[in-house]
Amino acid sequence: MRVRPGTEADAEQAALVLRRSITELCLRDHGNDPALLASWLANKTPEKFREWVRAEDSLCLVAVAGDDTVIGVGLMSKVGEIRLNYVSPDARFQGVSTALIGALEVAAAELGVPRLNLNSTTTAHAFYLARGFQDVGQPQTDRLKDNIYPMAKSLAAEET
Ligand SMILES: CC(C)(COP(=O)(O)OP(=O)(O)OC[C@H]1O[C@@H](n2cnc3c(N)ncnc32)[C@H](O)[C@@H]1OP(=O)(O)O)[C@@H](O)C(=O)NCCC(=O)NCCS
Q1: Beta-strand pair 70-77/115-120
Q2: For the structural domain made of 2-113, what CATH number should be given?
Q3: How is the chain split into domains, by residue range?
Q4: Whose alpha carbon is nearest atom 22 of ligand 1?
Q5: Which string of b and e fits 114-129 if b means at least 16 CB within 10 Å?
Q6: Is 10 strand, coil or helix?
Q7: What would the pLDDT profile of 62-83 be if each residue is shown by its tens digit?
Q8: 97 alpha-carbon distance from chain centroid
Q9: Which atom of ligand 1 is nearest to the CA of 129?
Q10: Which residue of 48, 77, 136, 150 has the smallest Cβ count within 10 Å?
Q11: Per-residue pLDDT tens for 88-147?
């Protein structure tokens, strides 16, 4: 497995990974509610992925298997907001999200970003806590069936 910049050629596979990850892995968060799931999936399309790849204000990474199949997708704004971090259900718990977050952290440090921010699903909350992110503010309860956790990680310590 390796992490590389996403390309427009990855769009179909990447959109499928995003859709399957949300549908199959984030059950606690959407509870199979059709309307909620539809709104969460609405922008997880090949067309939107191509936009993310082209956008100059963000960094889009993919994790790929040895045969270059996309198995994870990460997206971060260049001011340090992690907007996507999704793994294929076929590649769960094999270090994919750890590698994606690690690569985004390295990129953020290179950009001089002092702090990463994200809104975690309940599904991924323990994962982020174990990787040095901390809760900031109250969990949000309005958008999904379970909590959404605003989290942040300071990168300043890594500069010393
Ligand atoms: C939880 C998730 C993010 C972990 O990603 P992954 O690529 O499967 O995980 P990795 O192999 O890189 O890391 C394993 C970590 O997953 C977490 N984990 C392990 N078992 C878990 C479980 N049953 N449920 C949830 N998280 C678990 C632990 O933090 C573990 O870390 P540890 O081995 O240091 O204890 C991923 O499996 C997932 O469910 N993604 C769904 C999409 C999502 O919610 N994305 C985040 C949007 S903010």
Answers
A1: unpaired
A2: 3.40.630.30
A3: 2-113
A4: 123
A5: eebbbebbbbbbebbe
A6: helix
A7: 999 999 999 999 999 999 999 9
A8: 8
A9: 29
A10: 136
A11: 999 999 999 999 999 999 999 999 999 999 999 999 999 999 999 999 999 998 888 889
